[in-house]
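Contributing new records

If you add data, match the layout below exactly. Sequence lines come first and carry their own label; structure lines follow with theirs. Keep one chain per record. Anything else will be rejected by the validation script.
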Amino acid sequence: MADKEKKPAQAAKGDKGPKGDKGPKGEKSEKAKQPPKGAKAAGGEKKPAGEAKPAQPEEKVTPRLRTQFDEVIRKKLTDQFGYKNPMQVPLIKKIVINMGIGEGVNDRKKVDNAAADLALIAGQKVVITKARKSIATYKLRDGQAIGCKVTLRKARMYEFVDRLINIALPRVRDFRGLSPKSFDGRGNFTLGIKEHMVFPEIDYDKTTDVWGMDITVCTSAKTDDEARALLTAFNFPFRQ
């Protein structure tokens, strides 16, 4: 009798009671049913933390001079030179703006300031030009920053030409027109500006130094006469 009474006592000792009750084998707790933090929702889509607005594409606006070239200038040059193929009509390929800073040999900050002003004028990042060899007479060392330049193409090129002809050149002091002889024989035209402050992007009150710049207009014309006719059609103010 004593042995039979001990057995239920041992069973009661190992019984964990309601605290350790895990329930039936096939059932999971509520925490296990919840999906993990990084789990995807139905359909393979993640639950957005916050609703982000979709990025709107920028509207592409065709420059005014580009439209004028396609509708007016191309036909005018075809009639003038008798081109049989529309691909023969010359056009502006690129514009290179170069700014040399001789004072940058002694002060690198002036080169950085000039590069910042040129970036405002061109509307894109510029390249710092460096010396290719050392010249003791000018205290110049190889690899030293001496200027900056930028190359414009496509839309920015036409926008720069528009601002150059209609805003910048009329503001040049004692301006009497561009020299019609400043062509290199291959259809490229170069002009020089003594003060970069003629462009409206430069604030006169915040500028401490004045620098000049060289602007080269590269065209696909094979002769100077074709290039001159092309730039004249773009209203470049050549001297008579």
